[in-house]
Structure formats: C-alpha cells, structure tokens
Amino acid sequence: MVNEYQIRVLPNVAASEKGVCDYLAREHGFDVRTVTAMRILRRSIDARQRTIYVNLKVRVYINEQPADLPYVPVEYPDVSGGKQVVVVGEGPGGLFAALRLIELGLRPVVVERGKDVRERKKDIAAISRQQQVDGESNYCFGEGGAGAYSDGKLYTRSKKRGNVEKILGVFCQHGAPTAIMADAHPHIGTDKLPGVIERMRNTIIKSGGEVRHQTRMDRLLISGDGIVEGIGATDLRSGCQLTVHGPVILATGHSARDVYRYLDEAKVEMEAKGIAVGVRLEHPAELIDRIQYHNPNGRGKYLPAAEYSFVTQVDGRGVYSFCMCPGGFVIPAATGKGQIVVNGMSPSNRNGQWSNSGMVVETRTDDIQGDGPLKMMYWQEQLERDCWMQGNMKQTAPAQRMADFVNGRLSYDLPRSSYSPGLISSPLHFWLPSAVSGRLREGLKTFGRMSRGFLTNEAVLIAVETRTSAPVRIVRDATTLMHVRIGGLFPCGEGAGYAGGIVSAAVDGERCAEMCAEYMKGK
Q1: Are residues 211 and 204 in contact, defined by beta-carbon separation less than 8 angstroms?
Q2: DSSP H helical segments within 175-239, as ranges?
Q3: pTM for the whole structure
Q4: I want to staple 283 with a disulfide (CB 3.0 to 4.6 A). Which of 47, 122, 459, 500 is the partner?
Q5: Which residues pair with 248 in a beta bridge?
Q6: Using CA atoms, how far apart are residues 508 and 504, in angstroms rounded to an integer?
Q7: What letters, b where the CB count within 10 A reaches 16 and e where it falls short, cover 87-121?
Q8: CA angle at 54 for the pair 50 and 56, rounded to the nearest 5°
Q9: Which distant-in-sequence residues (6+ apart) come within 8 Å of 252 by Cβ?
Q10: Cα-flanking dihedrals φ and ψ of residue 326, to 5°?
Q11: Distance CA 295, CA 286 (A)
Q12: Tens digit of pLDDT for each residue in 308-327?
C-alpha cells in the first residue's frame, strides 16, 4: 500500500526520516514496523511566525518497496552518425540543449571559450590571490557557465512545472542529491555542482557528441540567402582558426560582450533590455538567522541557514533582493581587465559565517540616455569601470556599512567580509548613479521596517552588482524560437535575453533544441 500525506511539523520532527515516520504513525494509526520506505515529495519552511514549522508532502510505502526512482531517467542514444548541430556555450542553456538534441537523435558539437570545470578553478583562484582576471576563463566563462562557481541555486518562477521536474531529474541522474526534487528552494552547492557538470559532459561525449573547450566563436557563417551554416572559431590554445558546420544554438551567457558587439556589427537584430543593478549586501549569517527565525539563539540544531526575500517600489521602479546566498561568500565576477563585478555563492552545507544577496534597482531602457541595442551594455561597462577606479584599480571592492550608506556617511572602517580580494571604504551613496543610490537607500529603509534588525552597520554593501541579467535581447520568433531574420540561428538562454537563472536557462535550452530538431526535419 502507498499513501501520501501533507503534514506540518516542528523542525526537530522533520530533521529525520524516523521522526517523520513516527509522527505519521501516531497521527494515522499505522504500525511503523510495516513501513518499508518513505519519500519526501515536497519540503518548505514556514518562518512567518515565532514558531517555525516545516511543511512536508510525504509518500509512505507500507509492506512494499518503491518501484521507481524519485525522478524519471532519460535514455541517451548513440548519435555519432546523426546530423550535426553547433551549440555555442556550455552553461546550463548549452548543456541542456546538447542533451536534448541527443534525445532527439541529433549530434551536438559544443563549443566553449572557457576551460573545463576543473581547470577553471585555477583561474578563479588567481582573481583573489593575484588580482588577475583571465578574459576567457573566470566566474562567468567556462564549462558550466556562470552558475557553476556562483552558487547552483535551482529554483525558478517558471510555471512550466513539468519542464522543471525534467531539468531537476537530469541533474539527479548526473549525481545531484535527490533532495532537490523535494525542496521548495533546491540548491546543489558550488562544491558539488562541478562534478555534476563533468558527468553531463561525459554523457554528451559517450553518446557521440563533441565538446570543445577553449574554443571561442568569432563569427557566424551566413549564406547569401540568410541561413546560418555554422560558425568560425579560434582554438585559444593553438591560435588556429576553424569552422564548425550546422545550425547554431547560441547560448553564450549574459557576459559575452564581444559576441554582442559582433552581432551588432553584423546587423543581427537585437534590442536593448532593462537590467537591475546595485550592490551585494552581506550580513553575519548568525544575525540573519536570528532575524528570520525570530529567535535570539539563531537557527538552532535543526534548521538550515536562513533565507530572506524583499521587494518594494521606489519612484516607480522595483528595488529587491536577488540571488540570496545563506551561509555563503561574495565573489569577484569580472570578466576582463578594468572592471569590478560582485556576485554571491554558497556551498551545499551553507555553513559560512556570512549571508549575502544582491540588492538591486530596476533600470529600464528609457532610464538611460543613448540609442542602439547595446546602450544598456555600455552603461553596465561604465559602472564597472567606475567601481574599478574606486577600488584602486584592483579587485579590491568599494564598500560601505549599510546604515552609513542609508544616512549618507563615510564608513571609517569596515566589518570583516567573505570577499577575499578585500574591501576599501568608499562613499557609494556619492558616486553610484543617483537613480540607483537614491532608490536603493529608500528600499533599504523599507526593508529595515519590515524586518527589525536588518538595517544595521554590522552589514556591508559591496559594489557593484551589474550582471543580474543580459542587457540585450537577441530577437527571435516566439513560435519557432529562431532568429526573426536569420534561418538556422536559435538564440538561447540568459545571454539571448530569454532566461534568468540555471533552471530557466536549461528549460530554454531544451526548447531551442526541440525547435532546432523541427527545423532540421526539412533538411
């Protein structure tokens, strides 16, 4: 017999399978000795009141064993003899596009400018230790994309729940913990995600696909009648030029500015897209635990590091928290010289001393002067250069205590921080664009009223957070997902302006692969 139950229990009960099983046995009158297996189908924490509860949906197997896995495994056939499709970029959009192409019998050739996920670690370490940014291999460029070493959060606002379940299942099939299938805010963690990505790459290769690292796309090969026939690329190890033929799924991520410049010069239709910019806000994790769990002792033994989410409107623009990383770190996410960009990440256990999130202000295209599809990108670049200058032209990030920023005061000293290249005190309220700093100040005041103790000088604002999403949208047909003018080109994921995060980019990658397969039926 198999029964499902929705329950609401205290954290100490939810902390173990035995505790949940004993609770259900008492409430529903069955003998725990007859329970042969139990599965948590959904899990979320309700911290709205002083007493914290955990909401669970549980499947209980009585005198029988589960006949299936908690996810549906995907079969990947041998496509070594299949028609070829070029996938540019090996972030979540590109990886899931490649895997879906294999399901559909097509052979993906994945071209990635950065290094494999293990080699990337050396270049990432050099940013903090030597203040050097490799323009081809960093927190944004390389196998796994920006999410591989900047957190691995897997929740999305997407309503396509079926697609999301498939994405989470593919992650589990490649070694992610099955808990992500149940958690309201699933998270793999920066320490575990690289291994999952490696196994996904190995599936592509084992199935007859190809993955080429340190290979940068330089141009599209477009025929006289406006059809993409492949790409021209550079092998960054040898400097040799090469071509790769096939229709193209373009999944280059939100930071490949050279690609945007090339597309603009090639008159590929794009449009400027609104973005959100601001800072990383870092608190001591213990303080956030005390605030969110309404307990002077913090989270205690049975609760995870606390999360928060804030949103408000100031002068007609949204001000909100973004990419909250409990028990995590602030990281240097620049992709080239002369820029400072910050982001956040968390390991799987989220046990760090600090918690951080982006605190950002909505900026629309009509808020920024200028014309053309790249105007928001140019504004992004200017903010990052300004930040670089304020940081003494190193990766040392300008920072200000939270209450000092709100009150327009210089911080004469700064608290300890997880940001490893170091912080330098700077009057962010003075040099950030007034439309950003003014709205951010009012937003933080509102959040301080919503959550007592949140607005404090124990917290620090670290500049500048600009890479929340792509500043450009590559225009595509809503039905075919193909570029509106160029046949055989499928703009994909965050970099094309159609996703925001790992899961939504992965879903878009699968959709682009499906539309590419439809396109190729006529070839």
Answers
A1: yes
A2: 193-206
A3: 0.95
A4: 459
A5: 86, 489
A6: 6
A7: bbbbbbbbbbbbbbbbbbebbbbbbbbbbbbeebb
A8: 155
A9: 88, 89, 217, 259, 495
A10: -70, 140
A11: 10
A12: 999 999 999 999 999 999 99
